[in-house]
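pls design
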């Protein structure tokens, strides 16, 4: 989408850092929800749930930094690769989460989950190859070179390591410290807003480069473009609201649901994003969205393999020979692996840049 900018020229709204900043504004919207919960419990004379953490607001600085950097990297990657491939590459978070769960959380990984991780790795290779081989498409207003596609893929995958680290820390805060999920999101949004506003965005403003290259970004230009394009402003406000709701529901799923439910929902989200982009492409005569090409069959194959890996990891698809023999160690579908010491696949509560 294009609009007139600060210097009077019309150009595409390709603003990774401003999108990052908008995300954190949306996350801060969780504070009113948390205060509303407290008022409701107070009016009903319900005691607040106990919390073992005295300085949660300080503890979330690390996950907030991880969230800020990883989301920026993914936003830059989205400029150069199609949204559907971008979403599928995020499945690599399973690999990093499993590694960190073993090394940091000292959790066990049974054989069937190792098989799931291996299959996910194969799927990511297939999807990445499809992105490199197929004709240029995606969020950029210009043709994207193969070099930029490879850089975009690398940024998205590297971002998954940071998000896996963020998830491991959040898991500790949620399960070991009994922190309110909504409060945790609000604090992460507050710290992310602070780092973006007073550290990252002033730095990238003075860095050399052009808009949309992921290095230089003019924040004043971003606000001027919003003022000149009403639809762009509305979409940004809707995006901020969606981020607030998405993070609230995502953190509640992390707290009360199980890995099977999270995994199925994540797979459906990936599919819906791809289908929606295909519909948009043919409904707008190629103005936006993604086309179906011969390489899309390769991407579809990667998606099927990815779903198979995720389902095997979460014991939705069972391989009898690899299932644990001791009943007390078995993670059955519908149970939370974290309660039995197994590595979990996180709920990806960071947003998709639509």
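designed seq:
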């Amino acid at each position: 989408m294009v609009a007139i900018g600060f210097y009077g020229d019309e150009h595409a709204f390709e603003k990774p850092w401003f999108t990052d900043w908008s995300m954190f504004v949306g996350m801060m919207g969780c504070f009113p929800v948390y205060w509303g919960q407290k008022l409701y419990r107070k009016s009903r004379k319900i005691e607040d749930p106990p919390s073992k953490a005295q300085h949660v607001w300080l503890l979330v600085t690390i996950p907030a930094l991880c969230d800020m950097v990883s989301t920026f990297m993914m936003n830059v990657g989205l400029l150069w690769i199609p949204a559907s491939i971008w979403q599928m590459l995020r499945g690599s978070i399973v690999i990093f989460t499993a590694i960190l769960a073993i090394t940091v959380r000292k959790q066990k990984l049974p054989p069937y989950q190792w098989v799931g991780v291996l299959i996910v790795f194969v799927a990511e290779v297939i999807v990445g190859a499809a992105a490199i081989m197929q004709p240029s498409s995606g969020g950029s207003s210009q043709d994207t070179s193969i070099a930029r596609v490879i850089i975009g893929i690398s940024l998205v995958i590297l971002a998954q390591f940071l998000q896996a680290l963020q998830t491991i820390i959040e898991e500790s805060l949620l399960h070991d410290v009994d922190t309110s999920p909504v409060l945790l999101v609000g604090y992460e949004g507050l710290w992310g807003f602070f780092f973006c506003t007073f550290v990252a965005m002033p730095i990238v403003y003075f860095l050399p480069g052009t808009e949309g290259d992921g290095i230089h970004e003019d924040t004043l230009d971003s606000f001027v473009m919003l003022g000149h394009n009403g639809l762009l402003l509305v979409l940004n406000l809707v995006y901020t609201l969606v981020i607030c709701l998405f993070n609230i529901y995502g953190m509640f799923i992390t707290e009360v649901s199980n890995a099977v439910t999270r995994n199925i929902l994540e797979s459906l989200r990936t599919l819906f994003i791809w289908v929606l982009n295909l519909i948009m492409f043919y409904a707008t005569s190629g103005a936006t969205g993604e086309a179906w090409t011969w390489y899309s069959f390769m991407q579809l194959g990667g998606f099927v393999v990815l779903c198979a890996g995720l389902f095997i990891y979460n014991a939705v698809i069972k391989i009898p020979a690899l299932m644990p023999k001791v009943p007390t160690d078995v993670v059955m579908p519908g149970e939370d692996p974290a309660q039995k010491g197994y590595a979990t696949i996180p709920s990806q509560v960071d947003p998709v840049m639509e």
